[in-house]
Design goal:
Layout: H1 5-17, H2 20-27, H3 31-45, E1 50-53, E2 57-60, H4 62-89, E3 94-101, H5 105-119, E4 123-130, H6 135-141, E5 146-150, E6 158-165, E7 169-173, H7 186-189, E8 193-197, H8 200-211, E9 218-223, H9 226-234, E10 240-242, E11 257-261, E12 270-276, H10 283-297
Parallel strand pairs: 3-4, 3-5, 8-9
Antiparallel strand pairs: 1-2, 5-12, 6-12, 7-10, 7-11
Helix pairs in contact: 1-2, 1-3, 1-4, 2-3, 4-10, 5-10
Length: 311
């Protein structure tokens, strides 16, 4: 089988974004280049990698998922090789200032920074928890070099480097009747008491899931931290919808939480790094972003995700 690393990068991006157009935008190439790479690799393998649906983008076939898992392993090995060669020639130091969307910070940053510090012991890292509204302010002012966030901001002014897609899932008290199922639907949830995260973009996204289906959720409580929301859900005071979850067992004052897939095809934001266009990052920042991409390809964040139930 003959291929280039460019072919592999293109097909990996297409699966990650589940869209040829979105993958092309992320890689700043033409959609025809992505499509040509897919066609080429499908011709080389003799099997389709994707199912194409005009209104819903592309989805990997069973063969395609296995194939792309192997592609990611190969790309990760190549990235490790490049990083090791770079480390032979450069001792990275300096300070990286990272802004992180508050709900993502305690789940993702420890994994990211532990790996980065193990590789580059001379680095100093400053972290600031921010809301989505604050991200442009700290990036534009130079307070932060880049932001770890959802890709929901103006891409004409900022460049977004996606790491993984984060499908919505449902958190319920383990004692809730719906917690006994394999998945939950928005119709089932509509009359149930909902606990929302009182952050502008998060709340808009959550309510938009229901509005897109002509439903109106029963909002009873709101809180400004995901830890508080999870504690309320564990106590049986309502349900919540999240896009990522803690990767280790949580302890609550009362009760416990069950997390189930949300059935259906829903808007699925990407998690990644946001930088201002036209701004050259320090080598230390590039090293951190490259380490994040490598971790994502190696599945370091898979435990934070629950894949949707496809009916």
């Amino acid at each position: 089988m003959h291929y280039t690393l460019k072919h592999l990068h293109y097909v990996e991006a297409a699966e990650r974004h589940q869209s040829i157009t979105h993958a092309a935008n992320a890689l700043t190439v033409s959609p025809s280049s992505i499509a040509a790479a897919i066609d080429y690799l499908e011709g080389q393998s003799g099997q389709p990698l994707f199912e194409r649906t005009p209104s819903r983008g592309i989805r990997a076939t069973q063969f395609g998922r296995t194939f792309i898992d192997e592609v990611r392993s190969l790309l990760a090995a190549q990235a490790r090789f490049d990083m090791r060669v770079s480390e032979l020639n450069t001792v990275l130091g300096g300070t990286a200032r990272i802004a992180c969307f508050t709900p993502l910070a305690p789940i993702l940053l420890p994994t990211i920074l532990k790996d980065v510090r193990a590789r580059f012991k001379n680095l100093k890292i400053e972290i600031m928890d921010v809301s989505t509204n604050e991200i442009p302010q700290v990036i534009d002012s130079g307070e932060a070099d880049f932001a770890l966030c959802y890709g929901m901001l103006d891409t004409s002014k900022y460049s977004f480097i996606p790491f993984f897609r984060a499908p919505p899932h449902v958190a319920l008290s383990v004692d809730h009747p719906l917690a006994a199922g394999r998945f939950v639907t928005l119709d089932q949830l509509e009359p149930e008491p909902l606990v929302v995260l009182e952050l502008e973009f998060s709340k808009q996204y959550l309510l938009g899931l229901f509005e897109s289906r002509g439903l109106k959720p029963n909002v009873i409580f709101s809180a400004r931290s995901t830890d508080m929301i999870r504690a309320m859900v564990a106590a049986g005071m309502g349900y919540a919808i999240f896009n990522i979850r803690p990767m280790t067992k949580q302890t609550y004052a009362i009760g416990d939480v069950a997390e189930l897939p949300l059935a259906g095809d829903h808007e699925c934001p990407s998690v990644g790094v946001l930088v201002r266009r036209g701004v050259a990052l320090q080598p230390v920042c590039d090293a951190i972003i490259n380490a994040c991409q490598l971790q994502a390809m190696n599945g370091a964040f898979d435990g934070a995700l629950i894949q949707p139930h496809v009916q």
